[in-house]
Known about the structure:
Layout: H1 4-34, H2 36-45, H3 52-64
Amino acid sequence: MDIAIPIITLIVGLIGGFFIGVFYLRKQLEKMQSDPQMLQKMAKQMGYNLNSKQMQRAQHMMKNQPAPGKGQSRKRK
């Protein structure tokens, strides 16, 4: 019993942390869709320099992309 409780607590903490991280990441992506400066900053961190046309295209692609885990499902052949 002395070993089981810390292991169970660790597992519950990891699962909870994962879901909190996913929620936070989705919120950040939603903010980024409407904030061109944040999108530009992310692109610079990744080593890209976007001009205004590329920026508009990136925002358009992000707005039209379905949320992860919702909507489209892929069929395997």
